[in-house]
Amino acid sequence: MESQGKSNRQLQRALCYSDVERTHTASPSVIVIGGGTAGIAAARALHDASFRVVLLESRERIGGRVHTDYSFGFPVDLGASWLHGVCKENPLAPVIGRLGLPLYRTSGDNSVLYDHDLESYALFDMDGNQVPQELVSKVGETFESILKQTDVIRQEFSEDMSISLAISIVFERRPDLRLEGLAHKVLQWYLCRMEGWFAADADTISLKCWDQEELLPGGHGLMVRGYLPVINTLAKGLDIRLGHRVTKIVRRYNGVKVTVEDGRTFIADAAIVAVPLGVLKSNCIEFEPRLPEWKEEAINDLGVGIENKIILHFEKVFWPNVEFLGVVAETSYECSYFLNLHKATGHSVLVYMPAGQLARDVEKMSDEAAANFAFMQLKRILPNASAPIQYRVSHWGTDKNSLGSYSYDTVGKPHDLYERLRIPVDNLFFAGEATSTEYPGSVHGAYSTGLMAAEDCRMRVLERYGELDLFQPVMGEENPISIPLLISRM
Ligand SMILES: Cc1cc2nc3c(=O)[nH]c(=O)nc-3n(C[C@H](O)[C@H](O)[C@H](O)COP(=O)(O)OP(=O)(O)OC[C@H]3O[C@@H](n4cnc5c(N)ncnc54)[C@H](O)[C@@H]3O)c2cc1C
Fold it and tell me: Which intervals hold domain Amine oxidase (predicted)?
């Protein structure tokens, strides 16, 4: 107890950086900026490796783009909700397994609809007529053939182009793949789902890079009790300062000085920058000296898409017992998609998920108008639908703590931008979904980059200290006991 008390006192002293001269009598210190998955993972790893860590988070909550809302009396995710890759290789599997958090699998591997397959769905046209299942499956196959043909175009053209341009070239060459009438509308719906995956419109997605991310095996599973328990577990015992918006980062050969909005400063040996790409793009954090040109270019060139969620809570379920409902239309912009959470959670909730330009347009509305807009889409297909009793609306595009939902490859830019975003600059390390070459735009990707940044930081700081052997590696020491994931589908 005494030694614990002593080390706690040491910790308190060490973390009170404000305008205090730092000495090297205690263990090395790190400031982590951003309390999303990546920042928390980095802070956890360095804390466990006996570093003194303080985490500065601008919001009054942790989790970032993991945001489980409890205002309905049960958990609903306004940000991430799927574990992409329900398998033991998923870096988050040990913690999810240990917590016994159930997953509801919505698709297996290699579905053309990514996180869904066509096992349980209902698509309707704008007049409320259900599209025959046979037609949906057939158009799904055509969509796959079209995507295969776009690969031929990719090989042929040295210049990059958008996915939508590549599809129009495919149609010129293969008129048999061009669909008419209802089939065309269903095809647009598939495109709408693809746009949802990238949170971007097809005319901005790079043909060269769209399929370069790695998908873990095991398909996609919804976190039935929400993602937040994972974050809360990782954050236990960390020194997290909420409401600390970082505005300036100064780096010198012997340390970093970080300033927050109210002028307070924090000093440490190194810093891990784990804020969203959208925030870096907005230049609301000043770097002194400026970040090198290659880093600034990577920040500017990588795309950030927008996907939002409009959560509609109804008194009772009046919709078909399927995993998702879709509305097909002339253009992908007009198509829509509702996730039926009742299947996975038992709660009478539908989640409307607009992406790309539609998400941007809906975000301009008041919450009430946005919820009404989503409800009107539902009324098209289920005219007797009763109005929701509660709703929640996300604003990932305009929230100044995110300024976008997740990153994607835009036309004409190289895929190595993710890696360039990750590469450290002196004693500044970078983490976050947009620094993950393998799994961008995901929670497990963000988590891995947090661990990677922590390990890079540990190596660099301890090399300087010359005490490398004293500290444990922060990676490669997963809990040796592997607890299987709890997976269901009803
Ligand atoms: C609608 C939506 C649905 C998604 N669905 C899924 C899904 O189903 N599965 C999946 O795997 N992924 C999904 N994602 C992506 C996933 O949520 C992200 O990839 C991941 O959570 C990003 O983690 P991060 O740590 O990189 O960033 P964040 O979680 O955004 O963390 C960054 C933190 O930095 C803070 N911050 C910002 N500015 C400052 C500042 N100036 N000073 C201090 N702190 C600051 C922010 O408040 C935030 O807490 C989804 C995202 C969205 C938006």
Answer: 38-457
Is residue 467 scored above 90 in pLDDT?
no
Task: Please report, as a single letter, which amino acid is at residue 318.
Answer: F
- Residue 82 CA: nearest ligand 1 atom is 8
By most ligand atoms within 8 Å of CB, the mutation choice from 228, 246, 248, 406 for ligand 1 is 406
Which residue positions form the known binding site for FAD?
A: 246
What is the ipTM metric for this complex?
1.00
Give the residue ranges of DSSP H helices in 245-288. Answer: 277-281
Provide the residue type at 468 as one letter: L
User: Which letter, b or e, does each residue of 435-471 get, where b requires 16 or more Cβ atoms within 10 Å of its Cβ?
Assistant: bbbebbbbbbbbbbbbbbbbbbbbebbbebeeeeeeb
Q: Can you tell me the mean pLDDT for 427-444?
A: 96
Is the predicted pLDDT of residue 395 greater than 70, yes or no? yes
Q: Give the residue numbers of the binding site.
A: 246, 352
H-helix or E-strand containing 255? strand 255-260
Tell me what pLDDT residue 464 has.
77
Question: What are residue 97's phi and psi, to 5 degrees?
Answer: -65, -45
| Strands lying side by side in the sheet with 246-252 | 265-268, 255-260, 246-252, 286-288
